[in-house]
Amino acid sequence: MSVHPQVQALLERVARSPLPPYHSVSPFVARRIYRDTRAALAPQAPELPEVRLLAFQNYAMRVYRPVRGQTLPALVYFHGGGWTIGDLDTHDVLCRSLALGARCAVFSVDYRLAPEHPFPAAVDDCWAATRYVAEHARELDVHGIALGGDSAGGNLAATVALLAREQNGPALAFQLLIYPATDQRCATASHERNAQGYLLTRDAIQYFRRAYLPQESDWLDWRASPLLAKRHANLPPALIITAGFDPLLDEGRAYADKLRAAGVEVAYREYADMVHGFVLFGGVLDTANAAVAECCAALRRAFESVAA
Is the pLDDT of residue 253 over 70? Predict the structure, then answer.
């Protein structure tokens, strides 16, 4: 298997870019590079009738609603970016697409970023945001909650699902984990095999991990490495998506295996010719749009099963 021809064209485009790699600049500059390059690769943003901001002490949420005046299921979404870069704008198109395609309200969480706010600040914010949506469901006009996220956001979604089980709620309908980081030891074969040349590099991973987890002892904390949690039973059903040319491939697959072994309903989908981050690249990758459609269909089914 080789990368998809559209991915190969993207990799060649990145190789010609004069922009420096993330790990060679400050987080402030890395965030600007990420914002601008993601915008250039995204599909056109769909129009929605309602988009608004909720702001709190330590985090904010952008709320997307595909229709007005209806009670909708809710997806609480955590963006990717190595807990260090990424924001509401880098994932705006994706969240709009999920809201429309899954027919749900999406609450995109703007959690605190490292290194200014290292672990567990992001976990605390995402947990607080999830509880807020659950506790204020009536005034937010939502019912039923799913969690979702990509990469670092997939890590946070998996962690919050574990926290919800440990804290006896809120009840969750589903978890959408898109190439999630699940093991901060970063020692699987795919970390070696895909270490260079496929957008997310070993250098970038180490850069993000140093920012988010400056204490090596925290790598083994299940809130940072949900694969290492003692129990994975009694968690919500999951769709786990991975990419074949991604350093995180093996740990995403391992998390699917761990959930399945614990009796959790899991759908696992590997896009074998894709790279890390591909779901955001719908402007240049047809497969990205197909993957987003798959996510939307899985969310719709999960919400319908809860409502039944």
Answer: yes
- DSSP-assigned states of every residue in 13-40: HHHH--SPPGGGS-HHHHHHHHHHHHHH
Average pLDDT of the residues in 110-137: 98
Q: 0.85 exceeded by the pTM?
A: yes
Question: Is 151 a catalytic site residue?
Answer: yes
Active-site pick, 110, 150, 246, 250: 246
Instruction: Report residue 53: phi and psi, to 5°.
Output: -110, 140
Question: 246 an active-site residue?
Answer: yes
Among 270, 187, 195, 268, which residue's Cα sits nearest to residue 225? 187
Confidence of residue 1 (pLDDT cuts 50, 70, 90): confident
22 confidence band (pLDDT: 50, 70, 90): very high
Q: Which pLDDT tens digit goes with each residue over 64-112?
A: 999 999 999 999 999 999 999 999 999 999 999 999 999 999 999 999 9
| Neighbouring residues of 215: CB distance < 8 A, sequence distance ≥ 6 | none
Q: Per the structure block, which two tokens stand in for 36?
A: 């601008």
Q: How many residues does the chain have?
A: 308
Active-site residue, from 117, 191, 232, 276: 276
| Number of domains within the chain | 1
CA dist 76 and 74 (Å) reads 6
Question: Sheet containing 60-65: which strands, arranged edge to edge?
Answer: 50-55, 60-65, 105-110, 72-78, 142-150, 174-178, 238-245, 266-275
Q: Which of 151, 221, 250, 273 is catalytic?
A: 151
Residue 277: give its domain's CATH number: 3.40.50.1820
Please name the residues in contact with 220: beta carbons below 8 A apart, sequence gap of 6 or more. 184, 185, 228
Range of the domain at 172: 5-307
Per DSSP, the three-state class of 271 is strand
